[in-house]
Design goal:
elongated, 2 domains, about 230 residues, 10 strands, 5-stranded mixed beta sheet
């Protein structure tokens, strides 16, 4: 969960988000080194009037500043492509959930169960208990078992939406007439908050997402309770 004045990302709650954080640090270090080198060169040029005649027309220098950026781009591109393929990998999911975006709420359907579907609305401020987050709490959370691959099928009924949960490294567009899919594995139990990340109308800011990761035994008890009610 993000907190006020936070400068970095939220703590990772899935293996994909951990990979994204590592790639962010990797790319940021490269950017920092390039910036430091450029700043040093500019400072050196502005503070000295000495000129080395051998560097005024040197093929070696031109080769270096042509090849070196290409190597740097490869060092950035290879980890990025690896993560892109990991994010698209869906291998034998234990649970499939269909998520449908509406103006302005989400509905969830657990397709592996016969009749397990519900709508998820934002809780009004007057109904919040102490410790709950305003504009982020919902009346029905999407409950999933932890440490299990979950496939989410995402679409919309009316306009464009986007199902995004930062701690899980997920942001997938919900498009009417099209079924997108994503996958995630929660590495520990907890509550993970998100919001619609596509401007979808006047109440775009009021359709939050809450994913609750629980042990498998608790998930089975929850599903049994929902089906029997």
């Amino acid at each position: 969960m993000a907190h006020p004045s936070q400068l970095g990302f939220q703590d990772a709650a899935s293996p994909i988000m951990e990979e994204l954080l590592h790639f962010h640090d990797h790319a940021l270090m490269i950017v920092f080194l390039i910036s430091a080198l450029v700043l040093y060169t500019i400072t050196l040029m502005m503070t000295t009037s000495l000129t080395h005649t051998n560097t005024m027309d040197a093929q070696e220098v031109e080769m270096i500043w042509t090849i070196l950026p290409a190597i740097i781009l490869v060092l950035i591109a290879l980890p990025s492509l690896r993560i892109l393929y990991l994010m698209d990998e869906i291998n034998n999911p234990h649970l499939t959930i269909k998520t449908l975006g509406h103006q302005w709420y989400w509905s969830y359907e657990y397709t592996d169960y016969e009749d397990l579907t519900f709508d998820s609305y934002m809780m009004p401020t007057s109904d919040l208990d102490p410790g709950m987050f305003r504009l982020l709490e919902v009346d029905n959370r999407m409950v999933v078992p932890m440490e299990a691959p979950i496939r989410v099928l995402i679409s919309a009924e009316d306009v464009l939406h986007s199902w995004a949960v930062p701690a899980l490294g997920i942001k997938t567009d919900a498009i009417p007439g099209r079924l997108n899919q994503t996958t995630f594995i929660t590495s520990h139990p907890g509550l993970f908050y998100g919001q619609c990340s596509e401007i979808c109308g006047s109440n775009h800011s009021f359709m939050p997402i809450v994913v609750e990761a629980v042990p498998l035994q608790h998930f089975e008890a929850w599903s049994t309770t929902i089906l029997s009610s």
